[in-house]
Specification:
This protein is mainly alpha-helical. It has helices spanning 13-26, 33-40, 44-47, 54-67, 78-94, 100-106, 111-126, 131-154, 160-166, 174-183, 188-205. 67% of the residues lie in helices and 0% in strands. Helix 4 packs across helix 7 and helix 5 runs antiparallel to helix 7 (111-126).
Length: 206
């Protein structure tokens, strides 16, 4: 079988897209390096020209996702820049929903993720934040983003869990049943946008 040619990392994108499909098809836990090699149509040992082990392969795929995020932000208020940046991350991850567990696990190991965080910190710095204020603001924004990605992957409002909650006995769980019913009408884009708006208003007020 052929092996992967010696090419620059950006030229590996078709291989990494195929690897992402493999993770989506079999699940992150069940996918082996052999599965990935079979998906790519290469010898298993060929993969080890680029990755030392399974974890290194995971990091490379996560970096591939973050590398697709455009870090060139438009002019405007810092809040708008943060909205654009985080929405771009959400859209990039949504292209590979099966990779959410890997994104959560390896986000600090992927170089492109670190560049994204640097961009976010630059926006917060331009907004006048420094020291521990900048630390807390950045952690709050990342926490919201990762929480949304996790919720959308494991407990989307459009999923069966929301339906089950909406059908709970109203006399016993009036607020939960009503809220779940309302939640079924909220699309992901609106949920993300409005939730981020709440976070940004809180940061602006502090």
């Amino acid at each position: 079988m052929p092996v992967l040619p010696p090419v620059p990392p950006a030229s590996l994108d078709p291989y990494l897209d195929a690897t992402a499909r493999c993770f989506a098809r079999y699940g992150v836990r069940r996918t082996s390096v052999q599965d990935v090699a079979r998906e790519l149509g290469v010898a298993t040992m060929g993969l080890y020209r680029y990755v030392a082990d399974r974890q290194a392969l995971e990091v490379l795929v996560v970096d591939h996702v973050f590398r697709s995020v455009d870090l060139d932000l438009p002019d405007g208020p810092w809040q708008d820049k943060i909205r654009v940046l985080l929405d771009r991350v959400r859209v990039a991850v949504a292209r590979h929903p099966g990779l959410v567990p890997l994104v959560l696990r390896h986000r600090q190991a992927a170089p492109s993720s670190l560049r994204l965080i640097e961009t976010m910190l630059a926006v917060l710095t331009d907004a006048g934040l420094s020291g521990t204020d900048r630390v807390v603001a950045q952690r709050t924004l990342v926490g919201y983003l990762l929480g949304f990605l996790q919720n959308e992957h494991f407990a989307a409002l459009s999923g069966p869990g929301t339906i089950v909650l909406s059908e709970l006995p109203a006399d016993e769980y009036p607020l939960l049943a009503r809220t779940a019913t309302d939640a079924r009408a909220v699309p992901p884009d609106e949920e993300f946008r409005r939730g981020l708006g709440i976070v940004l208003r809180g940061l602006t007020a502090t």
